[in-house]
C-alpha cells in the first residue's frame, strides 16, 4: 500500500501502482489540510466574496459574477462544456496515472475540494475503474482541460469507463459496485480539471518505458559489438573518465561488464585500428540519452507533486491567488527533450543494424541470409528500422515551440505539452521495435561467430532472445518476430 501525501510521490512508486497494481491511500495528515482548505471555499461562497472560479465564470468569463445558489451548477456546467476531447482513448494505464496524479495534487491542500473527491479518485484506482479519456483536445494551458473533464465525468456517474478490460457506461459500473455518483460543490470542478495531469501521466509512463529501453539498448548494442568483433579499447575507463560525463562513464562501465569474458571482441590493430562511430561511440551517444532521462525524471517528479490548479488557497484563506501553475511549459520542454534523446537511441541502433547486414561493411553473410540470393534474410528488417527512424524524426519536432491563443485571447500562450508527451510515447514504441530488429540481427551474427565465444552475459542474453524468436534458417514473416521481441521488452519490469 502506498500512502499519498501530495509531496513525496516518486517514479518508483508510480511504477508499482501502474505496472504492478499496488493499492493507494491518502495520508490522514494531508486530509486535514484538505479539510481546512475546503472551509475557506465555503466561507468565500457564504460571504459572496469575488474569487475567480468560485464566485465568477471562467476564462474570458472571469468578470461574470455567479450567485451563491448557482455555484454548484457552475461546476457541473464546467465539466460538461469542457469534455470535448476527441480521438482514440488514452490507455487504461494512462487514465490510472491521471487519477493518481490528480488526487496527489489535491492532497497538497491548496485546492479547496472536499476529502470525498480525493477518496473517490483513489477508490477508482484501487477498484480498477479507469475513465475513458480521449487523447486529443488539450492545449496544455489552462492545463489539460478537455482530458481532465473526461476524467471527472465518471465521478459524476457520467461518461464511460474501462472496467475489467471492457469499455462500459459509467452508471452501470457504479450501480454494480454500489458507488454513488458525486455532486460537485463550489470550486471542485475547476480544481479537478485545471492542471497538467494528462501530459504528466503520459510523461510518467513514457519515462518508465524509456528507462527500461535504455538499459535494454545496452545489452543489444553489446551483442552487436561482439557480432562485429568490436574494438574493446574504446570502452576503456580512462577514455570516459577523461571527459567526465558520469552517464557516459556509467554506460562504458556497463558495456565492459556485459562483454567481460568475450572471445569475440578485438584489440586496436588486431583486425582494424578503429571502429565506426555506431560502435566506438556507444557510451558517448547512449550516455547523452541518459542525461536527457535524468533531466526528464527530475521535472516529472516535481510536477507529480505540484499544485497546478487555479486559484490556490494560502494562509488559511488570507491569500487566494489566481496564478498560472496550470501552464504546462516545464513538462512540454521535458517531453520534447525526451523525444530527441530517445530518437537518437533508434538512430544509432539502425546504423548498427546496417553494419550487421551490409556485406560491404562486415565479413558476415550478406543480410545475414542462410542462403544469400535465394533468401533475403534481414534485408527488409533494415528497411523497417529505417522507416521507424525516419518517422521518429518527424515526431521529434518540438511541440512546445507552437502556441495558439484561446478563450478570446485571455489565454494567449499555451504549451502544447500534451501533444509533446503523446509524440514522445509514440517515439518510444518505435525505438523499441528498432532495437528488437537489432537484437534479431545481433543474435544471427553471434551464431555465425560462435555463441560459445560470447561473454557469459551475452550468452544469457542470446538465450533470452532465442526463447522468443528462433534462429533464421529460412525466410519467414519477420513482422511476427519483431513484435514478439518488442512485446517481451515492454513487459519485463
Superfamily (CATH H level) name of the largest domain: Fumarase/aspartase (Central domain)
Give the termini distance in whole angstroms. Answer: 19 Å
What average pLDDT do the residues reach? 93
Q: Structurally, how many domains make up the residues? A: 2
**CATH topology annotation of the largest domain:** Fumarase C, Chain A, domain 2
CATH architecture of the largest domain: Up-down Bundle
**Global geometry:** elongated
Order of helices and strands: EHEHHEHHEEHEEHHHHHHHEEHHHHH
Structural class designation: mainly alpha
The unreliable regions are none
Largest sheet: 3 strands, antiparallel
For the CA atoms, what is the radius of gyration?
A: 26 Å
- What proportion of the residues form beta strands (DSSP E)? 5-15%
- The total of beta strands comes to 9
Biggest β-sheet: strands ordered side by side in the sheet: 4-6-7
Percent of residues in helices: 55-70%
InterPro entries: Aromatic_Lyase (IPR001106), Fumarase/histidase_N (IPR024083), HutH (IPR005921), L-Aspartase-like (IPR008948), Phe/His_NH3-lyase_AS (IPR022313)
Main location: cytoplasm
Pfam families: Lyase_aromatic
GO molecular function, one term: histidine ammonia-lyase activity
